[in-house]
Amino acid sequence: MSQPRDDRQDDLFRASLDAIINLRHPLVRLAAEIDWDFLAKRFSSVCRTGPGQPPLPTRLVAGLFILKHMHNLSDEALCGRCLEWMPSAQM
User: Fold this and answer.
1) What is the rounded CA–CA span in Å between residue 67 and residue 78?
2) Largest CA distance in the chain
3) Which InterPro entries is this protein grouped with (predicted)?
4) Residue 64 and residue 81 in contact, taking contact as beta carbons nearer than 8 Å
5) For residue 11, which phi and psi values (nearest 5 degrees)?
6) Contacts with 83 (C-beta within 8 Å, 6 or more apart), sequence order
């Protein structure tokens, strides 16, 4: 049998995530403390998949609600902030 392909060379010129973000940033530390699997299980019992648009990832929705509460933002202000925080979301 052949050996599994090593794809590490493909990532040679990509920066690792820990080199891009500050691991000591308060939001990064908060995200590490949250039990995302627990939230996903709890929300999946409420949200059923069916016809229509598929649901957004639980981590995204819960994270947005946390940011909305932390910064006391309206829905519209949260959307505006998301576009500032995630420039790739504008595309």
Assistant:
1) 8
2) 58
3) Transposase_InsH_N
4) no
5) -95, 15
6) 89, 90
